[in-house]
Write a structure and sequence with these properties.
about 450 residues, alpha/beta, FAD/NAD(P)-binding domain, Enolase-like, domain 1, 3 domains, 5-stranded parallel sheet, 14 helices, globular
């Protein structure tokens, strides 16, 4: 048994960052992790490996189809699947080993094994029980399955299995038109798979601004992805010839049969709280299994806290990281702050899709008066030079105060560009503030300035 100031259960982005900040603040800290490597889902089988494959597949498609337009003629382009997967593995290894180094640097104990809360102030890991003044639940999330569909990680896979195919499937059905489904669908589509995305709702990326969803679907369809919207999957069975699926309209109607080599189930994720012993300790959860917390991440049990995917809010690594830092600082008696309206979301397809703040649909529903400024990448010199003119920037500002309420981007490097919107919103800035800032030329950022100018209908380049 060891005694700690803080024990963090889970070493994903929220957990490991929380542990590091706690150690920096002088707490004797330990982190529980059952995997052989640190970093949780994100670094091992989520964000990091998927981005490695997205980048690699993008390069392959660029060499195969697009470099000729720049006068770079490439012939005999071949896919080396083994090398591509090695790239993914190397990226994961370097990241997870980096976290291990940071633990050693900050003198954080890694308690290896599955953790559960035995009682207030007590965490059991394997056969050992450790004590702590503060226990932080940061166990992340797990894949949501579909009733009657067995994920075998071979023919019917979750996002984990879709990162590890040994050869390119001829065809794949993606169940779910959200971020994970579209990103992994894009990877395999670029490498030659015929991909069909089935979405229960009537549009892809249903939580994003409607204009982004429409534009994304139009672009992705042109790239070769097929879509069946307003459709539900009632059955999927793997056999010798692949997987047979039964689908039908979401609102009822005749069913049809679809066949595919692989099926990816990507309908979302759920809080991973089942094996923590929360019932025994009396920690309250909601109807979705998420841990209930107050604004300081406290549960109803004194000394037990929760952050990241296990609590309400978007399941995003950077949201979990910020919560981990803020909680650590609160435990040290410092103040902490997080504005959940200022957390960006990014889809790493090509072009990228990124957003922060309110959607137009949300503002209408709230009855908030607003103005819209929109500007396309087709009118931007740098985007033309890059042959990357798909998409636009859309800015939503308050009709009376001009305060920035939301920014929505689909286009090249959208995930990087969105940071300007996040910064302005954090400082409660306006569309006029963006319009008055000098943006370097020629850059993609100029599209943001033009969209801000468009809020008052005074664009310069259109």
């Amino acid at each position: 048994m060891s005694d700690y100031d803080v024990i963090v259960i889970g070493s994903g982005p929220g957990g490991y960052v929380c542990a590091i900040r706690c150690a920096q603040l002088g707490f004797k800290t330990a982190c529980v992790e059952k995997r052989d490597t640190l970093g949780g889902t994100c670094l091992n089988v989520g964000c990091i490996p998927s981005k490695a494959l997205l980048q690699a597949s993008e390069k392959y498609e660029e060499a195969e189809k697009h470099l000729g337009a720049f006068g770079v003629n490439v012939s005999g382009v071949k896919l080396d699947m083994k090398a591509m997967m090695k790239h993914k593995t190397d990226v994961v290894d370097s990241n997870t080993k980096g976290i291990e180094f940071l633990f050693k640097k900050n003198k954080i104990d890694w308690l290896k094994g599955e953790g559960s809360i035995e009682a207030k102030g007590k965490v059991k890991v394997g056969k050992d029980t450790h004590t702590a003044k503060h226990i932080v639940i940061a166990t992340g999330s797990d894949v949501i399955g579909l009733p009657g569909i067995e994920i075998d990680e071979k023919d019917i896979v979750s996002s984990t299995g879709a990162l590890d195919f040994d050869k390119v499937p001829k065809s794949m059905v993606v169940i779910g038109g959200g971020v994970i489904g579209l990103e992994l669908g894009a990877v395999w589509s670029r490498l030659g798979t015929e991909v069909t995305v089935i979405e229960f709702l009537d549009r892809i990326l249903p939580t994003m601004d409607g204009d982004l969803s429409k534009e994304a679907q139009k672009i992705f369809k042109r790239q070769g992805l097929n879509f069946k919207l307003g459709t539900k999957v009632t059955e999927a069975k793997a056999g010798k010839g692949g997987v047979t699926l039964k689908v039908e309209p979401a609102k009822g109607g005749d069913s049809e049969t679809i066949k595919a080599d692989k099926v990816l189930v990507a309908i979302g994720r759920k809080a991973f709280t089942d094996k923590l012993g929360l019932d025994k300790v009396g920690v309250e959860t909601d109807d979705r299994g998420r841990v209930k917390t107050d604004s300081h991440f406290k549960t109803n049990v004194d000394g037990i806290y929760a952050i990241g995917d296990v609590i309400a809010g978007p399941m995003l690594a950077h949201k979990a990281e910020d919560e981990g830092v803020i909680l650590a600082e609160m435990l040290a008696g410092q103040s902490g702050h997080i504005d959940y309206d200022c957390i960006p979301g990014v889809v790493y397809t090509w072009p990228e899709v990124a957003a922060v703040g309110k959607t137009e649909e949300q503002l209408k529903e709230e009855g908030t008066p607003y103005k819209v400024g929109k500007f396309p990448f087709t009118a931007n010199g740098r985007a033309r030079a890059m042959n990357a003119t798909d998409g636009f920037v859309k800015i939503l500002a308050h009709e009376k105060t001009d305060r920035l309420l939301g920014m929505h981007i689909i286009g090249p490097e959208a995930g990087t560009l969105i940071a300007e919107g996040v910064t302005v919103m954090e400082f409660q800035g306006s569309a006029e503030d963006i319009a008055r800032i000098c943006h370097a030329h020629p850059t993609l950022e100029e599209v943001i300035k033009e969209a801000a100018l468009a809020v008052d209908k005074r664009m310069l380049h259109m």
